[in-house]
Specification:
The complex is a heterodimer of chains A (about 300) and B (about 425). Chain A has nine helices and nine strands. Chain A has a six-stranded mixed β-sheet with strand order 5-6-7-3-8-9, sandwiched between helices. Chain A has a three-stranded antiparallel β-sheet with strand order 2-1-4. The longest helix of chain A has 16 residues, at about 175-190. Chain A has about 300 residues and is of the alpha/beta class. Chain B folds into two domains: about 1-130 and about 280-335 and about 350-415, no CATH class; about 160-260, Galactose-binding domain-like (Jelly Rolls, Sandwich), CATH 2.60.120. In chain B, helix 3 packs antiparallel against helix 8 (about 300-315), helix 5 runs antiparallel to helix 7 and helix 7 (about 270-300) runs antiparallel to helix 8 (about 300-315). Helices cover about 55% and strands about 15% of the residues of chain B. Chain B contains twelve helices and eleven strands. Classes of the chains: A alpha/beta (about 300), B alpha+beta (about 425).
Chain lengths: ~300, ~425
């Protein structure tokens, strides 16, 4: 039986004003479980309660009613946070620290030894394409670069449970693709990922299961494939056909099924076109300030697990 | 502990890179540099040295108090509002480690700024008084300023006897070493009408064995502290009870004393060490203010926390007046008189009495809360070269840092467990 990493049971959250009057009911009776190795998406429009739910899983907010268990314990337990990585919606990093100092500081909070910290910082900087900007202060970074530092600090402790709040917000398509690949890679290695987003394509690309929230209510819950599949229709992909052959085939299908078949040339998505363009662009000039664009998202060796991260 | 030290490092970086340290250092060192040109003294070298020490200590105390109370709330409330603290609290770090780390960082930086400012002041003072002064000034400075004296107050029950125009005080003195001069300080008061500008009188001091140690006829000015340098003993005098007598030779003027009117001062220790002890007391006060600022920042939003911290500083500055109200039990001046008859404007009503009771209760609470800060004020002692005892230092550390700072820290941690950080 798969281990349950997060249990949410009839959770409610009501925000109150200074006088204790109920102001907003952000989450209303939400229940779901997240298993180990699963990528779970919280989907919903702005203000639907995704971030509130995530903060309750972290113990930053307390549920008004219901119960939350994270890694088998209450979220208020300080010790379990050693196994959790959290990337908030806004990067909220100390602007006066450099990228390297930021990661080192968060590594210290997890009690990592100096040598181990240095190794992980190095690998995470390489993974996020910020090795060349390590000595620049985070306050000078673009939003996307700060987001990459924030992602790196999320992973510094090699967490079992990773909570990502709008992880691709502010990232360029390359960074966005890298984050998605990284999420899949981490899930394959047994890590549990819970991400919230209102970017439907991102959720569709990486999540195994999703929960759709609206006004704090859980409106849908299930596997992505089950929810997206249109069971009454099928799509057949073929190489481009000669017009006469095509018409003949359509006519045959029409006669055979009684339905009117439709055809179209499949379209590439814009993300694929963009990535191909970047891949073929000339190399960046010396001293370029942006994040490095890699062909593949290299997962930091310490995140790969013992069998895969053989030291050089 | 690792997390606490990480927060210390972060906070030190924050204070340095936000230029808080630079601005505070420029303010402190700048004023330390120009202070000698701003002093108003009595024209004597001793007076100037004492005023300088007093002003410098006040400058360090007030300047760093304001700076600490300005920074403390921002380190918690500001970080919470910018959601920086949230990033730390989702790690396996309890709030107490965050609070302690920030407090230790403030302690460290305050200590460095205090020592830097004091170092500059001490260097300037040595340069200013070290040479180019008259030999008499040098002697006076050496005997009255560049020394540390232990204060001995009269034993209870030895008072002024006006009927005979004489005062007799007994003082239990420690051992007086040979060659170390003593100092007598006295201040007497006179009713409103004084027939002469100065009053003639006789001083007579006897050592524990009853031998006459000092006799002099001197003019004394009522209401003013009279400082008399006594000769150094040729042999060491063992600890014992000394007797000080004063006879008022002006039969037309009545003199009376107060509790601390007559004191004897004997040399006891090194001047620089005493100043450093005074500095330590200032530092303890800053540690308390740092705790107060951080706790205010935990409980309130940034503007409210800064307001509350400023209010606390104001209370500390007014602690003398608060203490006076508690001691005298008077909220207002006593009713004045009209031609000998008491003024009847102040009627005592139940409501008035209830309000007064409530206010007095509030004053007593405030006095308990901030009175200790006043009790461990080192400025006067440092300026008067009065020895700051090690016991006093330890008591100051316990009262200000451990007890009051601890209560504030506990309050912050308890509040944090009930707060939501999202």
């Amino acid at each position: 039986m798969t281990e349950c990493r997060v249990q949410i049971e009839k959770v409610e959250k009501t925000f109150r004003d200074f006088w204790g009057r109920a102001r907003v009911r952000a989450v209303r009776g939400v229940s779901f479980d997240v298993a180990a190795g699963e990528v779970f998406g919280l989907l919903g429009p702005n203000g639907s309660g995704k971030s509130t739910l995530m903060k309750m899983m972290l113990g930053l907010l307390r549920p008004t009613a219901g119960q939350i268990r994270v890694l088998g314990q209450s979220p208020d337990t300080t010790a379990i946070r050693a196994r959790i990585g959290y990337m908030p919606e806004e990067s909220s990093l100390y602007p006066f620290l450099t990228a390297e100092e930021t990661l080192d500081f968060f590594g210290q909070l997890f009690g990592l030894e100096a040598a181990e910290r240095a190794r992980r910082v190095e690998e995470l900087l390489a993974m996020t394409g910020l090795a060349h900007a390590r000595c620049r202060r985070v306050g000078e970074f673009s939003k996307g670069m700060a987001r990459r530092v924030c992602l790196a600090q999320t992973l510094i402790n090699d967490p079992d449970l990773i909570l990502l709040d709008e992880p691709t917000a502010g990232l360029d398509p390359v960074g966005s693709r890298q984050v998605k690949e990284m999420i899949r890679a981490l899930a394959q290695r047994g890590r549990t990922v819970i991400l919230s987003s209102h970017l439907l394509a991102d959720v569709e690309d990486v999540c195994d299961r999703i929960a759709i929230l609206y006004h704090g209510l859980l409106c849908a819950l299930g596997c992505v494939n089950d929810l997206l599949e249109e069971h009454g229709q099928i799509r057949i992909l073929l190489p481009a056909l000669d017009p006469a052959v095509r018409e003949e085939s359509l006519e045959w299908l029409r006669r055979r099924t009684g339905a009117v078949p439709l055809w179209e040339h499949p379209r590439k998505d814009l993300e694929t076109v963009f990535l191909e363009t970047i891949r073929h662009a000339p190399p960046p000039p010396e001293g370029a300030s942006g994040a490095a664009v890699e062909e593949e998202a290299p997962l930091a060796p310490f995140l790969k697990g013992k069998g895969e991260s053989a030291p050089p | 502990m690792k997390a606490t030290f990480a927060v210390v490092g972060l906070t030190v970086r924050a204070l340095i890179r936000s230029r808080w340290v630079v601005v505070t250092a420029i303010f402190l060192l700048g004023f330390t540099l120009i202070l000698p040109w701003m002093l108003r003294d009595d024209g004597t070298a001793v007076g100037r040295a004492r005023v300088w020490i007093q002003y410098q200590f006040h400058l360090m105390l007030l300047g760093l108090s304001v700076a600490t109370l300005g920074a403390g709330p921002g380190l918690v409330a500001g970080e919470r509002e910018r959601r920086h603290l949230q990033q730390i609290l989702v790690k396996p770090v309890p709030f107490v480690a965050v609070w302690l780390g920030k407090w230790l960082a403030l302690c460290l930086i305050n200590g460095v700024l205090l020592l830097g400012s004091f170092g500059l002041f001490f260097f300037m003072m040595v340069r200013s008084f070290g040479s180019g002064r008259l030999p008499s000034d040098q002697t006076e400075l050496r005997n009255r300023v560049w020394t540390v004296r232990r204060l001995t107050r009269p034993v209870a029950g030895t008072r002024w006897v006006e009927g005979e125009g004489m005062g007799v005080w007994r003082l239990e003195m420690p051992t007086v070493s040979a060659g170390k001069p003593l100092l007598l300080r006295a201040r007497f008061f006179s009713p409103a009408v004084v027939s002469r500008w100065t009053i003639p009188g006789e001083w007579e001091i006897r050592d524990p064995e009853g031998r006459m140690y000092y006799y002099e006829r001197l003019e004394l000015r009522p209401g003013v502290v009279q400082e008399i340098s006594l000769p150094a003993p040729s042999d060491t005098i063992a600890a014992g009870v000394w007797e000080v007598r004063y006879r008022n030779l002006d039969r037309d003027t009545i003199l009376f004393d107060e509790e601390k009117s007559v004191t004897l001062w004997s040399e006891a220790g090194c001047f620089a060490t005493n100043l450093l002890r005074g500095l330590a007391l200032i530092w303890f006060r800053l540690l308390l203010l740092a705790a107060a600022g951080l706790t205010m920042g935990t409980l309130f939003s940034t503007p409210v926390a800064i307001f509350m911290s400023t209010f606390l500083l104001l209370l500390i500055l007014l602690s003398g007046q608060i203490g006076w109200v508690v001691r005298t039990g008077q909220l207002v001046e006593p009713p004045h008189t009209h031609g000998g008859e008491p003024c009847t404007e102040h009627h005592s009503t139940p409501l008035r009495e209830a309000v007064e009771r409530g206010l007095k209760g509030m004053y007593r609470f405030l006095d308990r809360a901030v009175g200790a800060v006043r009790d461990f004020d080192p400025v006067e002692q440092a300026a008067e070269s009065s020895r700051i005892e090690v016991q006093n230092l330890l008591r100051g550390f316990f009262q200000l840092v451990v007890l009051r700072g601890g209560i504030l820290g506990l309050l912050a941690v308890l509040a944090a467990t009930h707060l939501e950080w999202g």
